[in-house]
Amino acid sequence: MSTDHYIKLIENELLPNIQLISPNPFDPIFVRNQSKSWITIGNGNYAGVFSHGSDPGRVVKVYGRSPEELKKEIEVYKRLGNHETFSNLIAYGENYLVLKKLEGITLFNAIIKGIPIPETVIKDIDRGLDYARSVGLNPYDVHGKNVVMYEGRGYIVDVSDFYKVGYCSKWDDLKKAYYKIYQPFLLKHHPRIPFFIIDGVRKGYRVYRKLKKRRS
């Protein structure tokens, strides 16, 4: 499918048939999708993500709030260009991005489902983050919910905060947990770990980071 035709589908079939509701600025966007041809595949703090069955290799990220963040994400993707660890920016409109779809499962869900995470995934992400720094970006807010793996390789699916300044410890902390806990104790015989345990760890980590920030 040509990009022009894909954009027409976005403008005529997707945008008029979705609502992106933001009841609380600190909670993810709520998506109401009444389109018959577009499928909702995700939602985050600023946007919903959609795919069309006729072109499964692309996704559309539609912003529901903070349009200035859309402009910043466009610039991030332009700087990244083509790199195997990241998606590619194909096109964009007033409130949406068209991106190459990255297949895979998040590291967060892999742990819950008992799917082993090989070290190659960690090294791929490190290589991608080094590349982002080399083009003047600052990898920020990289964690187990926006990193995916597919056939033993690692990919970063959300770069929307790479324009921010300062140090974010999330990926470094995740790596420490991987090498000190996951690799020696879980990798070989990876059990399923209930969601409430992993989510509890995630929430506990957020509290830990807030307390650490206050002390510093």
UniProtKB/TrEMBL annotation:
Top-level taxon in the UniProt lineage:
Bacteria
Q: Name one GO molecular function term.
A: protein serine/threonine kinase activity
Entry's InterPro entries? Kinase-like_dom_sf, Meiotic_Drive_Suppr_Kinase
What SUPFAM superfamilies does the database record attribute to this sequence? Answer: Protein kinase-like (PK-like)
> Which UniProt key words apply to this protein?
Kinase, Serine/threonine-protein kinase, Transferase
What is the designated name of this protein? Answer: Serine/threonine protein kinase
Native source species: Bacillus salipaludis
